[in-house]
Design brief:
Layout lengths: L9 H5 L17 E2 L13 E7 L4 H15 L5 E7 L8 H13 L2 H13 L10 H9 L5 H8 L2 H16 L7 E4 L3 E4 L6 H18 L4
Parallel strand pairs: 2-3
Antiparallel strand pairs: 1-5, 2-4, 4-5
Helix pairs in contact: 2-8, 3-7
Length: about 220
């Protein structure tokens, strides 16, 4: 049976647009606890932030500039990870495979923003699910068709796909974008916030976790 994943409507994300920087984000409204909390894979003193996304999601695309601006501000003590939603049978699966193909080929940084832009600005919706179109797209970044094909179904890519699906399942991810902070907190689409406030909430949760760290 085909998995059901949520891409929340635009008005729902805007319903909290009146939140100001000084407004306290509320548990159960703007974020929720991950139950049970999950172990993280970062060095002591670091706060892990994971974004689950799909290239075809308009809300992931809309939140991306705010997320990038936050990352470029070099938030102290944060280890950020992107994980494409990779649940088998979902509409997200093909682009998750594309993400990991780019990762194995070592071109993730070059392809990430253009991938989003090609779908949402250039009207190349076929990149959501058409492997032939993806092969051509990767070719614009110097990837030969034979290298794309060899990597696409490689053990390395399939292992990453399986791991991504397992992590998403552990966190109960059922929509994108979903952002997990330190294995304990979940926010993102569906939590009554504007796009910039999603990222502000992430920073709020990061600070919450940093305040809870043992003092040396």
């Amino acid at each position: 049976m085909k998995s059901r994943w949520l891409i929340l409507p635009f008005f729902f994300l805007l319903s909290g647009a009146a939140f100001a920087d000084t407004t306290a984000f509320q548990a159960g409204v703007n974020y929720e606890a991950v139950t049970p909390a999950q172990p993280t894979d970062v060095k002591p003193g670091q706060v892990e932030v994971i974004e689950f996304f799909w290239y075809g999601c308009p809300h992931c695309f809309a939140v991306e500039p705010y997320l990038e601006a936050w990352l470029k501000s070099h938030p102290k003590g944060v280890t950020f990870k992107r994980i494409p939603a990779a649940m088998k049978g979902s509409e997200f699966y093909t682009d998750a495979q594309a993400y990991f193909t780019a990762e194995v080929l070592g071109i993730t940084d070059k392809i990430h923003e253009p991938f989003f832009n090609a779908i949402h600005l250039d009207g190349k919706g076929e990149l959501r699910d058409d492997v032939d179109a993806l092969r051509t797209f990767f070719g614009t970044f110097g990837v030969a068709p034979k290298d794309f094909d060899a990597t696409w179904n490689s053990f390395a890519v399939q292992t990453r796909m399986s791991q991504a699906a397992q992590i998403a399942d552990r966190y109960g991810v059922n929509g994108v974008p979903t952002i997990i902070v330190n294995g304990k907190w979940k926010t993102g689409a569906g939590y009554q916030m504007s796009y910039p406030d999603i990222v502000k909430c992430v920073q709020f949760l990061v600070e919450k976790e940093k305040a809870a760290q043992p003092k040396h």
